[in-house]
Write a structure and sequence with these properties.
Elements (H helix, E strand, L loop, with lengths): L2 H22 L3 E9 L26 H14 E9 L7 H12 L5 E6 L7 H14 L3 E5 L10 H14 L3 E8 L8 H16 L4 E6 L6 H4 L21 E4 L4 E4 L8 E2 L5 H7 L8 H4 L6 H9 L11 H12 L15
Parallel strand pairs: 1-2, 1-7, 2-3, 3-4, 4-5, 5-6
Antiparallel strand pairs: 7-8, 8-9
Helix pairs in contact: 2-3, 3-4, 4-5, 10-11
The protein binds iron/sulfur cluster (SF4).
Iron/sulfur cluster binds next to helix 11.
């Protein structure tokens, strides 16, 4: 089971629980609400769907915005889990701590984030950061470890950060890695990733490993298609939108948690709870196409009608989707946003 399916399965389980909870109140449930704190990162990984990089603008979610989003959403929905994403969320450490403390006030059961672990370079900093994260209320942390990330971050730094989080008492520690080229594909990236996860499993026994198949969107569409057969035009539907999981970026754009660049509104212009309550994925001009029969092929046809020259094959459905959306972007202002997510 890949990472997305695992997340959807888990979310469906949570959704059933949430529906029971919702019966006791008038509020509906949101499984997962996440904040994309900034697009800036220490790395420029070849596979990054968010095109995160040290060169991205240093625009961050503002504390006042986060406070407003939380007040609004928790007044109208039950939120099971909040996550802080990037880029690298720990690059703005003090702001991140203030965000976690704010979320903690709302009794949301799970607060987590993924990190590349760059901050484990010095033991003293790793310990200080881990203790502050725990004290603020973080109870789940994921470390991205694979051949892509370890081109930039020495594994020893990640180990220090993992160890510090365990010692600080952060309850759930994930290691998150990605396979390239589909299940069981043999290539240098997957071999390197296996070496990395083997080293970590020899050293630690208190983490959960999450492995997923890389989807070809963002930077992967430019750098990694040679690892796929590129012989077919997949026609499977996109399933992610069935699960209510939302992400808000520094400019207020609201996306599905698992796919950024297709917006359902802007929370700086309209209350987040209204955007979410009015969202009907089947009626959305782009999402409605990718969830319909034929999946992202429907976007491909729309792009071809407007002059797009298709490839003879695509790596996966996300590759079709993101290639077509790159072309269609000028036709869908305020929907195919923000510009920094497009090539
Ligand atoms: S098919 Fe399109 S909408 Fe679905 S996850 Fe892939 S890129 Fe996102």
């Amino acid at each position: 089971m890949n990472w997305i399916n695992r997340k959807i399965k888990k979310s469906n389980e949570i959704l059933r629980v949430d529906k029971k909870m919702s019966n006791n109140t008038t509020k509906k449930a949101i499984n997962f609400l996440s904040f994309l704190t900034s697009y800036k990162c220490t790395n420029e990984c070849k596979h990054c769907a968010l095109l995160a990089s040290p060169n991205q603008d240093d625009i961050k979610i503002e504390f006042g915005d986060l406070k407003r989003y939380l007040e609004d959403i928790t007044s109208n929905y039950i939120v099971q889990e909040v996550g802080f994403f990037g880029g690298e969320p720990l690059l703005n450490f003090d702001l991140l701590i203030s965000f976690i403390e704010e979320v903690k006030k709302y009794d949301i059961p799970k607060i987590g984030l993924p990190t590349n672990g760059y901050w484990g370079k010095k033991d003293s900093i790793a310990k200080e950061y881990a203790l502050k994260l725990k004290k603020a209320g973080l109870n789940s942390i994921g470390f991205s470890v694979d051949a892509f990330h370890q081109e930039f971050i020495p594994l020893d730094d990640v180990k220090n950060a993992v160890r510090a989080c365990h010692e600080a008492g952060i309850e759930i520690i994930y290691l998150i890695s990605q396979n390239l080229g589909g299940p069981g594909a043999k290539n240098t990236f997957n071999e390197k990733t296996k070496e990395i996860t083997d080293i970590l499993s020899d050293e630690f026994d208190y983490y959960q490993l999450i492995t997923g198949d890389l989807q070809v969107k963002g930077r992967a569409a430019n750098h990694l298609t040679e690892y796929f057969s590129m012989e077919t035009i997949p026609s499977d539907k996109c399933l992610i939108f069935k699960v209510p999981m939302f992400m808000i970026d520094p400019n207020g754009w609201v996306f599905h948690q698992l796919c950024q660049g297709i917006t359902i509104g802007n929370a700086k212009k309209k209350p987040l709870s209204e955007i979410i309550s009015e969202f009907n994925y089947r009626k959305h001009p782009i999402i409605g196409k990718v969830v319909a029969k034929g999946g992202p092929q429907n976007l491909l046809e729309m792009a071809i009608e407007k002059g797009y020259k298709p490839l003879s094959g695509y790596a996966d459905k996300c590759h079709i989707c993101s290639s077509a959306r790159n072309f269609l972007r000028p036709y869908y202002p305020n929907i195919l946003e923000p510009s920094n997510l497009y090539l």
